[in-house]
Structures are given as structure tokens and as C-alpha cells.
Amino acid sequence: MSRLVTQDLIIDVPGRQGGTPLNLTIEPGQSWGVLGPNGAGKTTLLHTLAGLKPPRSGHVKLADKPLAQQRRRQIARELGMVFQDRQDGFPATVLETALIGRHPYLSPWQMEGADDYARAERALERLDVAHLRDRLVNTLSGGERQRVAIATVLTQAPAIWLADEPTNHLDLHHQSAVMGLMAEQAAGGQAVVMCLHDLNLAARWCDHILLLYPSGEVCWGTRDNMLVPSALEDLYRQKLAVVEVDGAPVFVPVKG
Amino acid sequence: MYRQLSLPLLLLVVLALAAFSTALMVGSASLSISDVWAVVQGDGDGLARTMVMELRLPRALSAFAVGGLLAVAGALMQVLLRNPLADPYVLGLSGGASIGALGAMLAGFGGVLMSGSAFAGALFSTFLVFGLAHGRGGWTPSRLLLTGVVVAAGWGAVITLMLAMSPAERLPGMLYWLMGDLSYARTPWPPLILLITICLVLVPLGRSLNVLARGPQQAAALGVDVRPLEWGIYVVASILTAAAVTTAGSIGFVGLVIPHMLRLLLGNDQRLILPACALAGGTLLVLADTLARTIIAPEQLPVGVITALLGVPTFLFLLYRSR
Lengths: 256, 323
Fold this sequence. Notes:
The complex is a heterodimer.
Chain A: E1 4-10, E2 25-26, E3 31-35, H1 42-49, E4 57-62, E5 65-66, H2 72-78, E6 79-82, H3 94-99, H4 114-126, H5 142-156, E7 160-164, H6 172-187, E8 191-195, H7 199-205, E9 208-212, E10 218-222, H8 223-226, H9 229-236, E11 240-245, E12 248-253
Parallel strand pairs in A: 3-8, 3-9, 6-7, 7-8
Antiparallel strand pairs in A: 1-2, 1-4, 4-5, 9-10, 11-12
Helix pairs in contact in A: 4-5
Chain B: H1 2-25, H2 33-40, H3 46-81, H4 93-106, H5 111-134, H6 141-165, H7 171-179, H8 189-202, H9 206-212, H10 216-221, H11 226-248, H12 254-266, H13 270-294, H14 303-321
Helix pairs in contact in B: 1-3, 1-13, 2-3, 3-8, 3-11, 3-12, 3-13, 4-5, 4-6, 4-11, 5-6, 5-11, 8-11, 9-13, 12-13, 12-14, 13-14
């Protein structure tokens, strides 16, 4: 299983000077939550980790080799990305959309085979969108499209998941189902890195947390060390109340 | 999966053959299908032989090649710019070619010099647009599109100026060229060979193009080397369009309408759409050209008029019917 390592990484957020150099190691089986206010650079961090955006300085290494020196096709077999927004100027069906997850594994002359179809269908079923398989994605609701996007990455079956707000647009049941899927992936030996807005999902489902401040400062560690109310209040500049439900802390914004 | 792709293509091949036989049969002197068949087999009387083998067949092959090139170029531009309204001329290419061709006509050149001049104009416009859109940052589809539209408008003004300053006896030829006219086509082989080669090259790239249609970041995340692929599409689409324009002037609508029609009918898998575009674009232009040279025979209409008159209502109908 591959590890994702950053060496003195500073992400390139326009108009921001400096920041804490990131020296992270994302091990197989870990589930990371990236927390931070709007504009702190969560998406930029994720895109940098995926090699889609060059860092201002430092390196990202996948399986001990810098991402910049690897072929995209090779990277795509190890690393899958759930994007926050999607383009569908040329609409395709839900099944076709999930099938493009097989792209990194197929040679140019190869057509998708029965096995690829089976993987895509299983992924659609897992995300509860199998009944929509022949619908065009642009006719779906926001939450359904989000689940199709996650199904595409599940079809891709990467060792490392980078998910930008995977619970966006999802109702409560599907939020919980998607977080369950991420936890299941981590339990199966994959690594998961998620940007999240919902502290409580992070508190319940992630084992490592990274806090990203608008100034570029970063701190990271295990969940129990990071989810300290005073640090979170500082991060969001919002007063919080904490209660414990079902063995996990629940953070609620309060007035004042 | 292969079967899914081959059935529509087979149908289109049948349609193309039907269009060819019509083009060979119809004209100043009509031939029956058995006359044409006899000629194709190597028999037939002298007059029919000359008519089919030396006049109608080369012209039909040219029409097919040009239509196919334009439709494939249009489909590629639409994927590159991720804009369903893109056509082969959207980046100012036909304007550049027109300036070259009209300039050559004004100078009294014809034949190879005129074709060469048109080709040079098309490529010049391509590089101009790409260079300007690239600017100091990287180019984005919207920036490329805007630059192309503005450059095309500039060419339009120059064309009008040239027409206004031209001697009256040269005007009809220039106008016909601008509307697209296959009577300028000489040998069908260069565009035809280009079309077949490009289709063979594009088929293995089809899936990458499908992924690219989802946006460059999604494509990169799925293992596509986006920048080289985009460059490749841009260069290929430009060469295809330049070859088409050089052969037959700027024929409109084929490059916009055919990819759209096929997407409405066949879905959006580029592995199917691109070869289908070559066949359907070619078929449409063979039929349109047959009409163009028969409707007001012995006079000929510019084929661009026919493609627009056929293409626009068909397209609007399909759009109206679709969801």
C-alpha cells in the first residue's frame, strides 16, 4: 500500500505570504479530516496533494517518488479525487460516468469489459444510485450527482482517497452512509483525506485531523489531540458548546 | 461494447454508399444505377465512363472528405472548448483562409497557389489566436473562445474591405469561395487520406477525450495528460479545418450541426461520435453538393447555401424534439 508524504510543503494560495511547512505522512488505513474556515485553502491543499496544482514550495511524494515526476496515469491508479464541483457540458449517463473511473486501467485500444461494468454497477449500488443508471447526470439532483461522483472514485478503487467535501448536498442519511463508506475504505487499508465543514462528522468518523488557518498556519495530529474546543473556536472564530452524544463529542455554535 | 459501436457506424456506411450512388447517378445527364454499376465494374460506354470516373466520382469523394473533415474538426473543437456551440471556424480559421484565398484571387493567382495561400492563411490565424489567447498566463477555454471570436470579427472586416475594393468581374468567384464551393476541388485524395488517417489516430484517444469532456481537472485526476492532449486536439482540428477550407472554401454548418445531431441521437461517447461524424458529415456534403449542382442546372449553387438550408431546420427539429 502506498503512503502519501509531504516534505516542507507550502500550498500556493493567492495573496497569502508564508505559512507552516507541512510535513505529513498519510499512512494506509488512516482517515484524515481537513478543517478550516472558508478560503483557508482546503481545496487548494487537496488539489496540491493530488498533484493537480503545483505547490509554492516543497514536495508531495507518492510511494517515495515525487508526484511531479510520475505519470498521471500511474498516479490515477493510486490516488482518486472527489471534486467539489463538476462540469457536464456534454451530459453522459450515470453508468457511463461511473465507468470513466476505469480509465487509468484500460489501454487506449481496450474497451470496457464485463469486469469494468461489474465494478461500476457495484459502486452505483453501494452509493444507492443504481436505479438511476440510465439517467443523464445533468437531470439529477445535487445530492444524487454527488453520490455518482463518489461512485466514480469507488469504481476507480484508489489506494488513497482525496475527497473535497464528500457530504456536500447530501441528506442526513446519505451523509452518514458516505462517511461510513469512507471509514470502511480506511478499515480496508486505504487512506482517506477529506475536507469537511461539519466538525461533528469529522469528530465521529476521522482518526486524524488537520486544522488549516486562514493565515496559512497548520496543525495536525490525532483526533483527540486536535479537537480541543478552544483551538476550534480560534479556527472558526466562533464560540462553541460541546456535548457528548453516543461516545463522540458534538460541537454546537452558540451566540456570543 | 464493440457491437454497440458498430451498428450505428454500419448504418452510416450504408447511408454514405446510398449518397454516393445518388451523386453518381444524378446530374446534367442522368444515369441509371445499372449504368453506374457497369462503370464501377470497368465496363460501360465511354461517355458514362468519363462522366462517372472523371467528373462525378472525384467531386463526390472531395465532398465526402471535406464534410467528414469539418464534422470531425467541429466535434474536436467542442470537446476542446467544452462548449457545444463551438465549430471548426470558431477560432477565426476560416477568416484567415479566406483572406489568403481572396488575396490570391485578387492577385490573379489560381489553382495550387490559391490553395496554398488559403492553407497558409488558416494556419497563420490558428497560431495568431493561440498565441494571443495564451498571453502571459495559460489559456482557458473561455479565453481561447473570446480571442477566436474577436479575431474572426477582425478577419470579417478585412474580407468586406477586400470585396469592396475588388474589380466587379472577380466578385462572383470570390463570393462563391466564401460560401463554400466544391468546383474548386481538384484531386480528392489529400483530404480523403487525411480524414482516414485522423480517424484511425483518434479512435484510441476516444476514451481520453470522453474524460476530457468532464473538465481538465477531472481528466487529470483520472490519468489523462491534459496539456499535451489539448494541444494535440487544437493542432489536429486546425489542420483538418485548414485542409477542408483549402479544398472547398468555407462551408458552414456541417461542423456545428453534424456533431450535435449525432450527440442527440447516439449519446456522447467520442469513440463512436468521431468516426460517425466523419461518415455523416461526408454523407451530408455529398448530398448537398449533388443538390447544389442539379437544382438550377446547368448553373451551380455554392454548396454552403445548401448545407445551411438543410442543416438549420434539421438541427432545430432535433433540438425541439430532445429533452
